[in-house]
Structure formats: structure tokens, C-alpha cells
Amino acid sequence: MTSLSRLFRLTLVHGALLALGCWSLWAQILYRTPSRYVGAMLTIVAAASTGLTVGFWLYAALRGAGATSEQLSPVVVGQKICALTTLAFCFYGLFLFTNGKFDLADPTHYATDIVRIGMEETDLARGVPIVWADVRSWRRPDDVERVMLRPDERKRLWGGQAVTVSVRPGFYGVHWISRIEADVEKRSRAILAMAPDAGQVRKDLAQFYVRLDRFAEGATAAREYSQRFPNDRDFPVHIAWLLTSRDRFAEVIVVLSDVAPRRQDAEVYMLLGYSLGMSGQQARGIPLLETARDMQPKNWWPHYALGWVYGTQRDYRRELASLRRAVELRPGLYDAEREIQRLLAIVRDPPTSRH
């Protein structure tokens, strides 16, 4: 009974250490920091400590019941060292996790290339959970950064490939890499030089620019695609929605200015009219929004957009009416509901009547 109780305690302790070690590895790979040696070395040591936890548990489970104290003493020492190491890496993983999780800054994107991927040419690499890439450094000429690769990145990256590395400053000021992806711009430009009518390549390029917050280039690429493929209405509208969600009104105008005259399309009118209105071109934007509203009277979005555009002209009564209608059609628009409460006070007590 004593042996079973001891085995249960060992299993509980080692199970907890194993879980903490795995979590630490996850944090180190997901919120990885670029370095020449340290980052990869720490991750490998953490993986070894986690693996040894399983090994010590198996040894204790299989031989602990009949082993002497002299035989078990090396195991006990190893267990303690392993436990302390795993706990230390757990705190290190917590530091990396909070450094990345609470980092709200936009990433900076660097074009570089992969020099090599660790163990990529051996069969052993297929079964190893930890693989790194040596990437040409964007910080120091003639040097490399060693970066841990996530499982999804291992499937689509290879040595010698041109890539874009997204680096964020970190909540604690420790830079970390949020994304490594193929350099779509370099690849696409090479293809388009030979095949300018490669439509999917142009779409991939526009989306790549928008994903990297290179909005002006994304808008230009989407417009070039639309000019070559005028019958594809969906793609420019998709890009326009992405840009609208980031309040990139000037870029939406670039994307849709050629699309709107070609068809009677309420969604195009909505997006283009809203962007024009919010860019100070209310005389052009409001008619488009009103047309979209009349074409889709049950759609909350034209009413919502019209309300904010009317507000830029201080046309408070029409702003109030439009936002009220938007909230009727789509309850839960909290920003519109707050604006309605503000407008009610203004309409009851117009600024011109105040002393």
C-alpha cells in the first residue's frame, strides 16, 4: 500500500511537471525571441528537462518499489534537478507569454531569407518537435538570427527561401517574432514580369500588402488587378472591406473608384460612399450611400455609415435618424447607441441656442 501511495504521488508530481514543461515549450516557440544561440539553446534544454521528467517517472515506477536507498539516490538527485529546471523554464515561458500576449504594438516587417533549417536534411528531423531556422539578420550585417519554427511554418518554409519576418517590440521591450512567411512580393513580382495576366498572383500580392499593413501598395495592387479583370467584382470588394475595417478611406477610394461606374452595386456604393464621406468628400459620398440605402433598405450598414457621414457635416437630425434606424435593424451597435444619446441632448438643446 505504501508503494502504491508513493507511486501515486510520483505520478502526480511528474504529471504536473510534464504539463508545465510542455506549456513552457509552447510559449517559447509561439513567442520566440531572435538570437544567434541563446533562444534555441534554452528551448532545447527545456525540451530535455521535460523529456527527463518522463524518464525519471518511468524509472521510479518500474524499479522504485524494490530498489535500495543507495540505488535511488542518483534518481532522486536527478529528479530534483529536473524539477527545478522545469519550474525555472515555466517562469521563463510565463515571461515570454506575457511579453507577447500584452504587446499591442504593430509589427515591423523585414524582408530577408532563410540560410538553412536545422536538421532539415536528416530523417531524424521529421520526428523532432523542435526545429530552428537560421535567418539572415535584419539587425546585424553578415550575421544570422536563429529562430524557432512553429509546426505550421515547418511545412511551408525551406532553406534558401526568401521570407518576411514580422517582429514586434514586446510588452517588456523584448523583441519577439510573431510570424515568418514566404516573401510573396518578391515571388509575385518575378512571376508578373513574365506573366502579367497571372490573376491569382496579383490577388495574393494585394492581400500580402494589406496583411503587412502596407495599405497604399495593397490598394494599388488591387486596383491593377481590377483593371485587368473587370468582371471580378468580389475581390476588390473584399479588399475594400479589409481597408474599411482599418479606416483606410483613401485606399478604399483607390480600389473602388474604377469599380463603381461599371455596375449598380449597393455594397460598392456603401464602401466607396462611406470612404468619400469620411475623407471630406461628402458631396460625392452621401449620394452613393443614399442610393445604397434605397437599394437595400433592410441592411443596417448604409444607415450606420450615413449617420456618421451626416455627423461630419453636423447634420445632427439626419445623423440621429440614420443611426436610430441602424440600431433598429442591428441591435447591439454600442458606438451608435452612445452617439444617439449624445445627439438627443444636442437636438433638444441645439448649440446655436446656448448662451
Task: Give the helix/strand layout.
Layout: H1 2-30, H2 38-63, H3 69-101, E1 108-117, E2 132-136, E3 144-148, H4 151-156, E4 162-168, E5 176-182, H5 184-194, H6 199-211, H7 215-228, H8 234-245, H9 249-256, H10 266-278, H11 282-295, H12 300-312, H13 316-329, H14 334-348
Antiparallel strand pairs: 1-2, 1-4, 2-3, 4-5
CATH topology of the largest domain: Serine Threonine Protein Phosphatase 5, Tetratricopeptide repeat
CATH architecture of the largest domain: Alpha Horseshoe
| CATH H-tier superfamily of the largest domain | Tetratricopeptide repeat domain
What is Rg?
29 Å
Strand portion = 5-15%
Widest sheet: strand order?
Answer: 3-2-1-4-5
Look at the structure and give the CATH class of the largest domain: Mainly Alpha
Task: Give the topology string: H per helix, E per strand.
Answer: HHHEEEHEEHHHHHHHHHH
What fraction, in percent, of the residue positions are helical? 55-70%
Count the beta strands: 5
Query: What is the global morphology?
Result: elongated
| Total helical segments | 14
Could you say how many structural domains there are in total? 3
Low-confidence stretches: 121-125
SSE class: alpha+beta
Which features would summarize this protein structure in a list?
single chain, 355 residues, alpha+beta, five-stranded antiparallel β-sheet, 3 domains
Short description:
The chain is of the alpha+beta class. 62% of the residues lie in helices and 10% in strands.
How would you describe this protein?
This protein is of the alpha+beta class and 355 residues long. The protein has three domains: 100 residues; 76 residues; 169 residues, Serine Threonine Protein Phosphatase 5, Tetratricopeptide repeat, CATH 1.25.40. Helices cover 62% and strands 10% of the residues. The chain is built from 14 helices and five strands. It has a five-stranded antiparallel β-sheet with strand order 3-2-1-4-5. A hairpin with a 7-residue loop joins β2 and β3. α6 runs antiparallel to α7 and α8 packs parallel to α10. The chain is elongated, with a radius of gyration of 29 Å.
